[in-house]
Amino acid sequence: MLQAAGWVALRNMSEAMLAIGRAIEMLAEGDARLPSAYNTRASYKNKTGDYSGAAADAGEAIKRDPAMADAYYQRSVALKKLGRSSASLADIKTAAELKPSDYKNLYDMGLREMGEEGGAAVPAGSESALQKAWSRLRAAAGGVLPFLIGVAGASLFAGGVLFFAKEGSSAHRIKKRWFTPVPAGAEGQVIGNGRYLIKEELGRGGMGTVNAAWDKELERLVAVKSMNPELLSNEDHRRRFVKEGKMVAQLRHPNIVDVYAICDEPGGLFIVFAYVKGKTVQDLLTAGPERRLKPAQADEIGRAVAKAIDYAHAGNVIHRDLKPGNVMIDEHGQVKVMDFGIARQLDHAHTTMTNVVVGTQPYMAPEQAMGVVTKQSDVYSLGVIMYQLLTGSLPFAGENSYQDKLDGRFPQPSELLPSLPPAVDLVFKKVLHPDHKERYKNCAEFVEVLKASLNI
């Protein structure tokens, strides 16, 4: 992410935001850097005038770190610009309580501007005291470069994201709690020759924003990803966005989220997906105190993922970011692999790709960190997922995790969980081998051998 820091220095905000968005997609849930990542993007969106987006990102930061004073400040700035003065003042008050040295004076200024604590309306055309203090408080908050440098291992070349809807999900909780989730003017927009009516916002990624939409022709909910406005003028980004949609649209499989349409219109660039309702495998892991699944349940999930990935590989498509958060169980119990947003298609004459570093570090094969990706890289990632589902732990964690990957050194599953047969250790030794040529040839082979070793 050092290159992203360079974009900041060069004041290229669109590239900087794109880089931060990719980092957000790659950081695992629970990573201590994730709140700062969301907050950094919120600050950029405030600077570029995307106030709805800034409010949403600041809210994501607050959800993960309720004590992050600057996130309340960023949301306060955004809400002020959206005309929600009372809510803005409430946020800056929270920021002042959390960090008086930086925000107390600003809160007092806000009170004076509001006229009284109850919140008198700000006269039209008057300049916000919050905005006047922008530069001073940005300096006090420490800026964004430390965060960018701190995630230097993250990729600059990840793509967009697909959306999954969850009952009781953070997106729904946040929407009910405080912010208007749809960018100004987006809700009610009609795309696809009048077929799709855009509804509320569901999620955001490095390449675009995902909204629910109503398919008026088939009378069903769908998900629509719209390309970020700041990227529309970049032809490379447009081509990549469309290529992603076309590539995934070719993958028609019951365990892969469907793409219905690609709409390239004067009002924007859109991909229409299936609207999937359910829970991610990550949700299942975090729901229980042991943070693991029963072997039979893990096997069922692993076999479904294997079918999806091997199908994609047959079309020379590599996912490159398999992780529990990208595997969903829908309301009917069907396993769905999501987020082919950073997938890439191999040349039919080759089995590897180079100069591309993407993925989520704990699940990433060691060769991916060096810019080399093979089909066995996905097999490796599935191996990490299955290890986590069975043991409740990641095989590679801590400061030396990358070197441990290169050495093939990780705790034996049977040592972490004595109820697992020792034969399981040999299966993971092979699937997590540092040399991709020594791994299982495909996902199906891996899950079959694993099932046999588990005696289920």
Give your account of this protein's structure.
This protein is an alpha+beta fold and 456 residues long. It has 3 domains: 149 residues, Alpha Horseshoe (Serine Threonine Protein Phosphatase 5, Tetratricopeptide repeat), CATH 1.25.40; 105 residues, Phosphorylase Kinase, domain 1, CATH 3.30.200; 175 residues, Transferase(Phosphotransferase) domain 1 (Transferase(Phosphotransferase), domain 1, Orthogonal Bundle), CATH 1.10.510. The protein is built from 19 helices and 13 strands. Strands 1-2-3-4-6-5 form a 6-stranded antiparallel sheet, covered by helices on one side. Strands 7-9-10 form a 3-stranded antiparallel sheet. A hairpin with a 3-residue loop joins strand 2 and strand 3. Helix 5 runs antiparallel to helix 6, helix 6 packs antiparallel against helix 7 and helix 18 runs antiparallel to helix 19. The longest helix has 20 residues. The two termini are 44 Å apart. The N terminus is likely disordered.
Tags for this model:
456 residues; alpha+beta; Serine Threonine Protein Phosphatase 5, Tetratricopeptide repeat; Phosphorylase Kinase, domain 1; Transferase(Phosphotransferase), domain 1; 19 helices; 46% helix; disordered N terminus
Helix/strand layout:
Layout: H1 2-9, H2 13-26, H3 34-48, H4 51-64, H5 69-81, H6 85-98, H7 100-114, H8 129-132, H9 134-141, H10 145-150, H11 170-177, E1 190-191, E2 196-204, E3 208-215, E4 220-227, H12 235-249, E5 259-265, E6 268-274, E7 278-280, H13 281-287, H14 295-314, E8 317-318, E9 327-330, E10 335-337, E11 344-345, E12 352-353, E13 373-374, H15 375-391, H16 401-407, H17 413-416, H18 423-431, H19 443-454
Antiparallel strand pairs: 1-2, 2-3, 3-4, 4-6, 5-6, 7-9, 8-11, 9-10, 12-13
Helix pairs in contact: 1-2, 2-3, 3-4, 3-5, 4-5, 5-6, 6-7, 14-15, 14-19, 18-19
